[in-house]
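fyi for ur records
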Amino acid sequence: MQASEGDRLLVHGRVVGQHDKVAEIIEVLGGDSGPPFRVRFEDGHEAIVSPGPDCEVRHATATA
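which gave:
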């Protein structure tokens, strides 16, 4: 899984009724654009995440 600063990390809920969480990748800590990532969730909480199979990266779109 590769990502860049500004991409979004979508963490799917793991149990019934749990909502998905969206976080902005603010720093890539791994080599070769890989995990772990420092992320900021919508509520302002920051964490270091090594995404598992319940996550997906939504790449930021470049605007010219």
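Strands lie at 8-11, 21-28, 37-41, 46-49, 55-58. thats all i got for now
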